[in-house]
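Tutorial, part two.
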Amino acid sequence: MTDLILRPDIRPASSFFSSGPCAKRPGWSLDVLNDASIGRSHRAKGPKAKLQRVIEDSRTILGIPENYRIGIVPASDTGAFEMAMWSMLGARGLDILAWESFGQGWVSDIVKQLKLDDTRVLEASYGALPDLDAVNFSRDVVFTWNGTTSGVRVPDGDWIPADREGLTMCDATSAAFAMDMPWDKLDVVTWSWQKVLGGEAQHGMLALSPRAVERLESYTPPWPMPKIFRMITGGKLNESIFQGSTINTPSMLCVEDHLDALDWSRSIGGIEGLIARSNTNFAVIADWVSSSDWAEFLAVDPATRSTTSVCLTIGDPWFVELTEKEQAAAAKAVATLLDKEGVAFDVGAYRDAPPGLRIWAGATIEAVDLTALMPWLDWAYETVKTEHGASAA
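Running the prediction step on this input gives:
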């Protein structure tokens, strides 16, 4: 078969475009782990100091207020957010925003597991946001900042009032270290190491405002609390969790790796440098989409398009006329071909999302690699289209 588009000559130097776990920082090597406190108790003075440094460096780089507690908790972002929900929800009515898979997951946990009665679910389909003006902030509010599986994010924090009565609980795992977070508008924020900074799995981060701490100390949920979620002891916040004493054993190899990522973040200008790199990377994809005759953003509104987990759908009439099953197969074939060529790993759309591609554009990605990737997307799509018997026209 003759390619309709010639196979590109230039390959990305790094082909790691997965949306989680994400690419390591440029220049990373195993040597960064040489000083890891392995074979030691994480509660010993030296290892505990490293855990505390993760907390304080995160605070400094992200600009988190000094009166917010920050802790390292088990089970990645999922564990951190579950911990917050199980510990704090039920004191007030609740509004839940859901517009993609992970937001829907929080809906399911709240409605089916915690079985809260006074809940409102504000939903939108993939590619859109719920009506932010409809949120009632006299209630608690649960939402994701960036919908990793839809490529849709909230545009800013202007829709959140400073004088809210309820708590705002934000899953920010693919936004922290990549987007401007209005910390004074957020009471509970969670993220994980393996997203924007390319860390390793299973460690979650939890930031609590003074209002969130007040909720913890004044409200006891009616359900049994698993040990792994407990933040209160003797009616008061267990401050040790937020001073480097984790609830369960962390990986000190992962701690060392994350410290390296935080050091790199500072070296490129902190949060401003991280945001700038993500924005530059997104611009490469946006420029390509603007001239593409087949690829489109899943996010309809430019103001809500994610600059990290960039989700693309296919608008080519040939593709649109396929059955849903055929669309899924064709989109998967494109991602598989890119993987086989070794130019882009793990870029298929999330399993619950519309068929398409999902390309990570966070700060650890190099813009030159995305520039090299774009012609490969055209080549792979046209190759799959031709193999499916579509006209070359």
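The first strand starts at residue 69 and ends at 74. In part three we will examine how such features are distributed along the chain.
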